[in-house]
């Protein structure tokens, strides 16, 4: 299974949401990292045939996915950022309906739904109405619907948004478990979601792909160094003005700052190994800090 | 898939309320229709309901048979006798009612005579009181001669072809009329258009969310990214809309008809509608008129539903789609009153729900030199439009993009 994006561009009027993206994906987990508005969702929607590109092509094993039509969608599982459902449906009915939409015969669908409900831990909630599910349960129902057709291509748009830390870890493990033998594209603005499970990470900003590679390659691509130093509380505001601060930890007699800078910011500052979060802050700047408060 | 589409519709609270409203409307309209038939007993007391209809039916069916000259003369004689009785001439309303009770059996036939001897486009409820036995013999000829006089009067705007058509239709009507108690059918036909209008609006309400709700609930992404989302998924939505429209229409119209005719009686189904609609150009029976009205109503309801679904698919807004049947079926008739567009207004879709008026008043159209009644044209025309709109609806939804 190979997906190729060739000069993929999407414009909404004068606004370019995705700008000439060239990529090739094979089996494995791909993490799409970027702040809100970077173009991640637009890119994913094009990959799901929900939006047509303004220019460029998406090919699946050499064939245009829009020409493949349902043949392509047969391979696809998608969990959108805003997971909409039918509130009055029970979880089981909802999944059976989506199974029907995916062309799964009723008898096979029943078995598959049962299997997936067990896998995502919703067996006991099978007859519960969708609207009565917690945020985490809804997301799990969402991943179950995406997996119904055992897709070769699984696209998950911000799958952990709004989940509490426990649910996020659980969800991350579930995605990792489901990623065998398929192509998984996972978009997020939460670094920890993909840091450990993505084989390749793409950094996206303003509709363009800034960097791509493994977590280590991305970290190594940062031209600046990460420093850690202990400073007095009254000095913090000066450091914030002068440097990028990726973390602050308050201690009884001062603050430990994590600073991204080419030069040593303070005499007692020691050089530490950069993390993906540091890189994220470096590339996406203040905006990333705001958006990434949940990290 | 169809099962789930239907489930989506009926799991919504507002749609359940709409069905409840429909049931209440059915009951209320049935009661109002049934109460149209009144019976006055010998003491002058009026009643409605099953027994009233039964009594009236028994009384009027004594005169069942062909309305020959002999029968018409007997009716006139009886009418004159009762009208000159002490009760009828009394100032006491109760006494007058007692007199009326004695001519209830012939009121249906008297109505025919009244129509025949009134001015062509008027109705004189006492015309029969002044008709002689000799004049009443020519009642069927008078129908044709009155039409000719009217057509020659210059008060109308018919073309020569239309005039010929009208006269031909009048001449083709089989006489003498077969008479039976017809009040059940008459009441049914008079009220069915209103019931169908309410039915069409509620059906429009039910189907208006079929396409837009995917967007409103944000379920569109999963729907369209599924293998059959842009093919069978859409077809199942269209089927759901068609099924709801058809099943609700058939079931509710049937229930209404059954209730009314069960109480008021089915007698008179094969009598000519001219017994009730003297000037009608349609040479059909009450049963045929009913089927014609029901067919027009169905096409009108189907058209409004499809239009609502189309707007639902285009605008992605259920509230906007809900308004469509209302505009098509209720606002257009008002527009036709404000703006005088006689030719165009006859083709507005609301006319499909007004076939009763068309049967009664006989609107005509001329196409390629051939004269036809308006109803005979608009029913097939809108049926074809409904068919044409199906692929349009399919394509619009199929091409939908979700941002």
UniProtKB/TrEMBL annotation, chain A:
Residue span, ABC transporter domain: 3-231
Pfam families noted in UniProt: ABC_tran
GO molecular function: ATP binding
InterPro entries found in the cross-reference section: AAA+_ATPase, ABC_transporter-like_ATP-bd, ABC_transporter-like_CS, P-loop_NTPase
PROSITE patterns named in the record: ABC_TRANSPORTER_1, ABC_TRANSPORTER_2
Record's keyword terms, sorted: ATP-binding, Nucleotide-binding, Transport
Family: Belongs to the ABC transporter superfamily.
PANTHER family: ABC TRANSPORTER, ATP-BINDING PROTEIN
Protein name (Swiss-Prot/TrEMBL): ABC transporter ATP-binding protein
Organism, as annotated: Anaerostipes hominis
Automatic annotation (TrEMBL), chain B:
UniProt keyword list: Membrane, Transmembrane, Transmembrane helix
Superkingdom per UniProt: Bacteria
PANTHER family in the record: INTEGRAL MEMBRANE PROTEIN-RELATED (PTHR37305), MEMBRANE PROTEIN (PTHR37305:SF1)
Listed name of the protein: ABC transporter permease
Ranges annotated as spanning the membrane: 192-211, 239-264, 284-310, 322-344, 371-394
């Amino acid at each position: 299974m190979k997906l190729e994006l060739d000069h993929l561009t999407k414009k909404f009027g004068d606004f370019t949401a995705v700008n000439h993206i060239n990529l090739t994906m094979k089996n494995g987990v791909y993490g799409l990292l970027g702040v809100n508005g970077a173009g991640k969702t637009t890119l994913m929607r094009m990959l799901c045939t929900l939006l047509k590109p303004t220019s460029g092509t998406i090919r699946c094993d050499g064939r245009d996915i829009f020409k493949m039509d349902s043949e392509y969608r047969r391979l696809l599982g998608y969990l959108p950022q805003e997971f909409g459902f039918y509130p009055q449906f029970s979880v089981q009915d909802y999944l059976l309906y989506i199974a029907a939409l995916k062309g799964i015969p009723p008898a096979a669908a029943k078995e598959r739904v049962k299997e997936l409900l067990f896998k995502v831990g919703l067996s006991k909630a099978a007859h519960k109405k969708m609207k009565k599910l917690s945020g985490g349960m809804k997301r799990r129902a969402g991943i179950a619907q995406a997996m119904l057709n055992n897709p070769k291509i699984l696209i998950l748009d911000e799958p952990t948004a709004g989940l509490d830390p426990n649910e996020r870890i659980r969800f991350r493990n579930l995605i990792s478990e489901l990623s065998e033998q398929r192509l998984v594209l996972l978009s997020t603005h939460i670094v920890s979601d993909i840091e450990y499970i993505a084989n390749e990470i793409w950094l996206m900003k303003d509709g363009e792909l800034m960097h791509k590679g493994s977590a280590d390659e991305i970290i190594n691509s940062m031209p600046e160094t990460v420093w850690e130093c202990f400073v007095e509380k009254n000095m913090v505001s000066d450091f914030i003005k002068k440097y990028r601060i990726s973390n602050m930890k308050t201690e009884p007699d001062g603050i430990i700052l994590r600073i991204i800078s080419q030069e040593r910011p303070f005499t007692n500052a020691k050089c530490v190994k950069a993390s993906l979060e540091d890189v994220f802050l470096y590339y996406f700047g203040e905006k990333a800090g705001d958006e990434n408060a949940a990290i | 898939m169809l099962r789930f589409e239907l489930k989506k519709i009926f799991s919504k609270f507002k749609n359940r309320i709409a069905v409840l409203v429909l049931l209440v409307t059915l009951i209320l309209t049935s009661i109002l229709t049934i109460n149209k038939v009144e019976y006055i007993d010998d003491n002058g007391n009026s009643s409605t309901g099953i027994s009233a209809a039964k009594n009236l039916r028994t009384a009027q069916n004594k005169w069942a048979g062909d309305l020959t000259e002999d029968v018409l003369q007997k009716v006139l004689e009886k009418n004159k006798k009762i009208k000159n009785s002490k009760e009828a001439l009394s100032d006491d309303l109760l006494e007058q009612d007692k007199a009326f009770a004695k001519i209830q059996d012939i009121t249906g036939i008297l109505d025919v005579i009244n129509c025949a001897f009134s001015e062509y486009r008027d109705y004189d409820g006492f015309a029969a009181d002044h008709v002689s036995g000799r004049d009443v013999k020519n009642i069927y000829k008078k129908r044709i001669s009155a039409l000719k006089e009217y057509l020659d009067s210059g008060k109308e705007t018919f073309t020569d072809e239309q005039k010929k058509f009208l006269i031909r239709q009048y001449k083709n009507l089989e006489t003498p009329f077969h008479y039976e108690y017809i009040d059940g059918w008459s009441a049914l036909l008079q009220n069915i258009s209103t019931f169908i209008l309410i039915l069409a609006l509620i059906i429009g309400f039910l189907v208006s969310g079929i396409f837009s709700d995917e967007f409103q609930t944000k379920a569109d992404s999963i729907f369209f990214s599924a293998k059959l989302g842009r093919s069978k998924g859409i077809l199942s939505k269209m089927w759901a809309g068609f099924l709801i429209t058809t099943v609700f229409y058939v079931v509710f119209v049937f229930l209404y008809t059954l209730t009314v005719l069960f109480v008021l009686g089915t007698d008179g189904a094969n009598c000519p509608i001219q017994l009730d609609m003297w000037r009608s150009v349609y040479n059909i029976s009450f049963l045929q008129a009913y089927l014609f009205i029901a067919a027009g109503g169905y096409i009108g309801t189907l058209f409004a539903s499809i239009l609502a679904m189309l707007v639902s698919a285009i605008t992605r807004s259920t509230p906007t789609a809900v308004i469509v049947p209302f505009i098509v079926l209720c606002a257009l008739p008002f527009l036709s009153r404000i703006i005088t567009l006689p030719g165009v207004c006859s083709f507005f879709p609301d006319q499909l729900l007004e076939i009763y008026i068309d049967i009664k008043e006989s609107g005509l159209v001329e196409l390629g030199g051939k004269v036809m009644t308006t109803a005979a044209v608009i029913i097939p025309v809108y049926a074809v439009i409904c068919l044409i709109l199906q692929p349009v609806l399919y394509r619009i939804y199929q091409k939908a993009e979700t941002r």
